[in-house]
């Protein structure tokens, strides 16, 4: 009997402990508390990514107007998504809607002041846009981009362009040389560096740099179906990329057509046209 009583007491004690523990145990967290999102918020996130992926597909297929609208719809759901802000600005650049491009890159700079891409695009925009042309703003934006990412050659190239427009030939040449030192296929840096040499009477160096620009401007069949960098597509195009929207694109886009026997003639014609273009451009500087 004593053993039975002790066993009963042990069972009651165990039950008491079990009931006490479960009584004081916190209620299980609801699913939304575990995930941090309500069902509505989850649906919003899913919808954002659906729109973002759709916008990316449209962008990669040259459908810039539709891509812009879809990125805009995605930003209605997540207004601080950095890539969506960046690419929406790029789409507006492609569409020639420069004030809207400026608006979204400025918003990106506010969302993340350490995002160098926003400043790089703004710096380029202030050079290429007739309505927004401001060489001081362009320089400031490029300096900010360079401060954030000192390894990037894009801001250095744009700063060289700024100096070239101002007529600061020696300083511009240093920037162009720095660009080709880190990006040996920079067509524009070779071409503009060649112009500086031509302007200073160094015909041999001008020819060498012009020839190099022509070389890299020629299509590379081995890369025809490759995606080689951010913004590039299977067609070899890029969208809203600063190098493809340069203020000097009208000159560099002619380089692939230059044949070896035409180099001297093409060089003189191209650099004379560039010289006249720069003289007109300097009139716009306040």
Question: What would you say this structure looks like, in words?
Answer:
There is one protein chain. This protein is mainly α and 286 residues long. It has helices at 2-24, 31-35, 39-60, 64-77, 82-94, 98-111, 116-128, 135-148, 154-166, 169-182, 187-199, 203-217, 249-252, 263-282. The longest helix has 23 residues, at 2-24. The protein is elongated.
Descriptive tags:
286 residues, 69% helix, mainly alpha
Largest sheet: none
Query: Helix and strand succession?
Result: HHHHHHHHHHHHHH
Query: Overall pLDDT, averaged?
Result: 85
**For the terminal residues, how far apart are their CA atoms?**
108 Å
The poorly predicted ranges are 15-19, 23-34, 222-243
Rounded to an integer in angstroms, the radius of gyration calculated over CA atoms is 30 Å
State the total count of DSSP E strands. Answer: 0
* General form: elongated
How helix-rich are the residues, as a percent range? 55-70%
Number of helical segments?
14
SS-based class: mainly alpha
Strand content: under 5%
């Amino acid at each position: 009997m004593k053993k039975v009583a002790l066993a009963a007491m042990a069972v009651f004690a165990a039950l008491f402990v079990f009931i006490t523990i479960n009584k004081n145990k916190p209620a299980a967290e609801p699913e939304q508390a575990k995930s941090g999102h309500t069902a509505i918020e989850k649906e919003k996130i899913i919808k954002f990514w659906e729109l973002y992926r759709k916008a990316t597909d449209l962008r990669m297929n040259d459908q810039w107007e539709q891509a812009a609208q879809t990125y805009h719809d995605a930003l209605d759901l997540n207004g601080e998504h950095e890539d969506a802000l960046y690419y929406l600005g790029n789409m507006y650049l492609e569409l020639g809607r420069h004030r809207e491009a400026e608006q979204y890159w400025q918003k990106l700079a506010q969302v993340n002041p350490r995002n160098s891409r926003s400043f790089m695009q703004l710096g380029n925009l202030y050079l290429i846009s007739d309505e927004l042309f401001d060489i001081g703003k362009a320089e400031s934006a490029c300096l900010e981009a360079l401060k954030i990412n000192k390894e990037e050659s894009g801001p250095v190239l744009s700063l060289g362009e700024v100096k070239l427009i101002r007529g600061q030939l020696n300083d511009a040449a240093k920037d162009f040389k720095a660009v080709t030192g880190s990006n040996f296929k920079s067509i524009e840096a070779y071409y503009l560096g060649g112009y500086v040499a031509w302007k200073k009477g160094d015909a041999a160096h001008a020819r060498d740099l012009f020839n190099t620009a022509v070389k890299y401007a020629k299509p590379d069949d081995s890369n025809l179906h490759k995606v080689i960098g951010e913004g590039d597509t299977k067609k070899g195009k890029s969208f809203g990329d600063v190098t493809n929207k340069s203020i000097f694109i009208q000159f560099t886009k002619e380089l692939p057509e230059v044949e070896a026997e035409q180099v001297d003639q093409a060089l003189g014609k191209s650099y004379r046209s560039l010289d006249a273009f720069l003289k007109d451009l300097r009139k716009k500087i306040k």
